[in-house]
Write a structure and sequence with these properties.
With 49 residues, the protein is an all-alpha fold. It is built from two helices and no strands. The N and C termini lie far apart (40 Å). The model has no long low-confidence stretch (mean pLDDT 89).
Length: 49
């Protein structure tokens, strides 16, 4: 999936560095979302009766 996105970014932007920067931002956002989901699941587990 990452290869498809990176190839599409290279085609759209025609710049290797811009595509790399956008990909890094997407990966950073993905990691923040994963951390948020894990914290929310732990909180939900603690609140179960």
């Amino acid at each position: 999936m990452i290869f498809i996105v990176s190839a599409g970014l290279l085609y759209i932007t025609e710049s290797w560095w811009m595509s790399l920067g956008i990909l890094m931002l997407l990966m950073l956002a993905d990691s923040f979302i994963q951390v948020y989901q894990k914290k929310k699941e732990q909180k939900d587990k603690e609140n179960e009766p």
